[in-house]
Protein: 3'-5' exonuclease domain-containing protein
Amino acid sequence: MKFNFTKGDRLILELSDKNVFEGSYDFGTNNQIDLINVVDLETRNPIQARLTFYQHEIVSVKIVESQNGCKSDLNNSDSTNTTIQDSSNVIKLPRDEYDRLQTMTQNFLYFATADKRYVEAIAHLNNCENIGVVGLGLDFGPTKPIDLLVMCSWDQVYIFDLFSYQYANFPADLKDLLESPYIKKVGHNLLKLVESLWYCHRVCLKNIFDTQLADIEVEKKNVANHETQLEPVTMVMKRSLSECLRIHLNFPSSVIEEAGDVTSSKWKERPLTNSRKIKASLLAVYLITLKNTLERTMLKEFYGKLESLTENVYKCSTYQACVKFDSDVIKNGVKNVCIE
Structure:
């Protein structure tokens, strides 16, 4: 493994022991990488010391992409050839967006009872277009309710501790939110949560987007485009959230794997530790971003035509009024929508 990083580059290192660290590249050789300003991505705890990682313990290295699509904090005067850098090493998110999601993971709001903050959270979620939704609990399903309900707006993660509420019935305001046909609920492998909410609480989860099913549809199309009649039919497998984030956003798979199974007995332990809350937050914070990525991939042809339309406008040096709009042109690739 060879590297080509510049001092100041923000890197994510996935190690053979499943630990994942993020830090700024400071120095390196063919056999090691030195990072400063390091963060343990499992606990989100900062590490003040300078850390050295050796080649034999590094599984993968990812680069946090900057807002303009280049490496972050470039300084060409101090570079060291230590992995060949290409697009496969770069996180597929702008640097600012990646940093925002990392901050959201730690700045969650936890509710063990319905207080003023709870009311404000419900009001905020009711004004959202998309909400990430995750159910957590010991073997939850048709006969067992969830212990934690994690919801994520575009800018805030909320953890509702239903196990601690001790309510006889499912909270009415959460029920209204989940059943709203106007708010899209985004989740991964949502069927288990749908069954639990319906059979245990008679809550009907409406207007959903399942990122696992969307990934299957994208993969089916990819397989169909590459297969020939002489090749065997390829089975499309269900992918975990960590696998989907790795494939579509180039995240290290260990980042989400460390959060654990959504049906683990650890979600029932009380008091809920801060590290456990962070892991719950981690399972929800990327859902809307993943949904947007998958949605754009599924509608790639449509967005391509739309971009062709707008490009025609930008290419015109002067404004010319359209006498007639020919809708058939759109079907044929949209070269000129104005008919003289």
